[in-house]
Amino acid sequence: MNSLTPLIQAEYDRQQQELCLIASENYVSKDILTANGSVLTNKYAEGYPGKRYYAGNNVVDQIENRAIELAQQLFETDYHVNVQPYSGSNANLAAYASILEPGDTILALSLAHGGHLTHGHPVSLTGKVYNFVHYGVNKETEMIDYDEVLALAKEHRPKLIVTGGSAYSMFIDFARFSRIAREVGAWFMVDMAHIAGLVAGKVHPTPFGHADIITSTTHKTLRGPRSGIIFCRPEFKKGVDRAIFPGTQGGPHVHTIAAKAIAFEEAMQPSFQQYAQQIVKNSKALAFRLQQNGFRIVADGTENHLFLLDLRPSPVRGKEAQLLLEQAGIIINMNSIPFDEQSPTNPSGLRFGTPAVTTRGMKEKEMEQIADCVTTVLRDHTSVPAVAETVAQLAKKFRIPGY
Ligand SMILES: Cc1ncc(COP(=O)(O)O)c(C=O)c1O
After folding, report:
1. pTM, whole model, 2 decimals?
2. pLDDT of residue 172
3. Which of 101, 156, 213, 236 has the fewest Cβ atoms within 10 Å of its own Cβ atom?
4. Tell me, what CATH number does 370's domain have?
5. Does residue 89's CB lie within 6 angstroms of at least one atom of ligand 1?
6. Residue 129 in contact with residue 101, Cβ under 8 Å?
């Protein structure tokens, strides 16, 4: 027992007692927790399998090679794989550094329209080092406007075109992006952090075969440990590996690499495909019920695990809505909606995601219940204690995996 043990227990209780609708969060299995908390954390393994700087890496080499093999099997690809990235943000930075020079132009989805900070936002190092130009979504459809992407690509002649994001609810046409990139002589990168589990579960089109480089986190829909991964066509192997080590990282987190490998193995089970299908069914059911309850959903729905709700008709904005729902035991994040006139610190939207509640075993019926709880809280603030009771009952019925 140490002074952190009660806090870790308290966090376990919180996760168990509340409902998580944060689109980027999930619950990992006991096997993954075990690997991530194993003696592998004791080992330094700078370098790559067969080429380490320190002795004692015989077992670690087998673990890293197995993780690579499993990642290739899972995504049915012969792309080169680097399983060492500590997380998604630095996987992206390394991917850029593997093929670009500082100051080079990159075309990416803007954060305000569903992209990610590491896609060139000025507060991110990525936005300081590279010359980012951003495309957005169409004002009417709230979907990516491929003609605009092509026009911007022709105008700015980027060396790299990036797609993927953290708050985009529709399928992305990777083939179309790839054609645009080829037309202007750019490389094409997909950040599939959010949708990796959906791609693995075959409920989202795959970027493999279209993108030159693919980055991802492993802890969102893919339901692995908090970490990153990079895939690339063979010609980018040397650049990617060097950009990770020694370019931007030191010793790899071998315990996490083992946990990632287990996540890939889990995602190859038929039950994971059912899980991915249910994530999307749940997302659609939740969005549909909220629409029936009178809310507007950005882009009029969802094709993946997340969607944005437009709070503008209601008296509350993102910050207050997030807080009220938290008081009711529903954990969610405020989010900008496209063309938001509010600041990102109190935006006009809420982002809903179903990976975590789906892991707990919830289905469409529970999504309707959750939508009604959200509606009640947003309509009538005095309802929070009563809704909190309903949420607690629901959370008790669907336990989180792990210890
Ligand atoms: C699309 C996308 N890329 C990259 C990241 C960064 O991942 P991490 O938080 O692991 O650095 C995220 C995280 O939310 C993301 O949504």
Report:
1. 0.98
2. 98
3. 101
4. 3.90.1150.10
5. yes
6. no
